[in-house]
Amino acid sequence: MGGGVKYWEEAREGLLVHEDRRVVYLNPKAAQLLGVEREKVLGKPLLLALRDHRLEALALFGGERVLEVRGRWLSVRALPGALYLLDETEERTRRLGLEEAAQVLAHEFRTPLAGILSLLEALTPRGPEEEAVLAHLKAEARRLARLVEDLSLEGRRPGRVFDLEELWPRLQALLRERLQGRAVLYEAKGEVRADPDAVFQALLNLLDNALKYGQDPVRVVSFREEGRLHLEVRDQGPPLEAYEPLFLPGHRGFQGGLGRGLGLYLVRRLSGTWGGGAYALRREGENAFGVYFPLDWKKEA
């Protein structure tokens, strides 16, 4: 392992190196997660250190799983001769707590939102201008009501086929002040099957993050790849240290900001309602935060 040993001695991720089914090396974190003493398992059979046939099978045959091991939830990744262990117990607990909070908030919001919608329906506008304002208020109240339902439900939800170009006028209306003086290009188009309100909310969160923390120009683009349609918000900000953790609830540090990461967590949650997913990466010199949509509905049509 050479000079990498010092790094792994202080790493927060566990590492166990094995050869011929015997332990060659394990760092302090791996020893802690496995509940063993390093001196007693070095050079010994692999199972003596792992004490779990599921971990042994992963170590020998490769793969990646999340397992409950001796009271902890471990994300386990196996490569030839190496087993990587990451403790996700705290993150899992925080995620479950957030799920419960989402359920409670959804329950508490339903009644006042229903009341607001009823009051709006009872109002009678006195002219074209008031009628336009009232229509906008009704649309936003309905969007909030749908968002509350998205907070409380899991799994895929029915939607309709629409073109992504439909979202831009709504985004411009809602972000009018934020867009002033900013170089934002909306180049997204293409038909998807999803709940337009869910897609609008996901894109609103992605664009809002780019406007807060990214650098111009900000571009909203779409493209097809491997049976999916991707919708991305890209900006010219510097590379980030890590992208995937930004989608975790409670994560701090979005591009130097102090956001809690709930906006991106919600983006991933919403993307599941149309059978898609959410991601972030460095693409062609830009930070790209996106969602994708399956295109298998076209085969059914």
Q: What is the topological layout?
A:
Layout: H1 4-10, E1 14-19, E2 22-26, H2 28-34, H3 38-41, H4 46-50, H5 53-61, E3 63-69, E4 72-79, E5 82-87, H6 89-122, H7 128-152, E6 160-163, H8 167-174, H9 176-179, E7 184-186, E8 191-194, H10 196-213, E9 218-225, E10 228-235, H11 262-272, E11 277-283, E12 286-294, H12 297-300
Parallel strand pairs: 7-9
Antiparallel strand pairs: 1-2, 1-5, 3-4, 4-5, 6-8, 9-10, 10-12, 11-12
Helix pairs in contact: 6-7, 10-11
Describe the structure in brief:
This protein has 301 residues and is of the alpha+beta class.
Description:
- It is a multi-pass membrane protein.
- It is found in: Membrane.
- The strands form three sheets. The chain has a five-stranded antiparallel sheet with strand order 2-1-5-4-3, with helices on both faces.
- Helix 6 packs antiparallel against helix 7 and helix 10 runs antiparallel to helix 11.
- By secondary structure, the chain is of the alpha+beta class.
- It contains twelve helices and twelve strands.
- The protein folds into three domains: 84 residues, PAS domain (Beta-Lactamase, 2-Layer Sandwich); 63 residues; 141 residues, Histidine kinase-like ATPase, C-terminal domain (Heat Shock Protein 90, 2-Layer Sandwich), CATH 3.30.565.
- The relative contact order is 0.08.
Defining key terms:
301 residues, alpha+beta, Beta-Lactamase, Heat Shock Protein 90, 5-stranded antiparallel beta sheet, 5-stranded mixed beta sheet, 12 strands, ATP-binding, two-component regulatory system
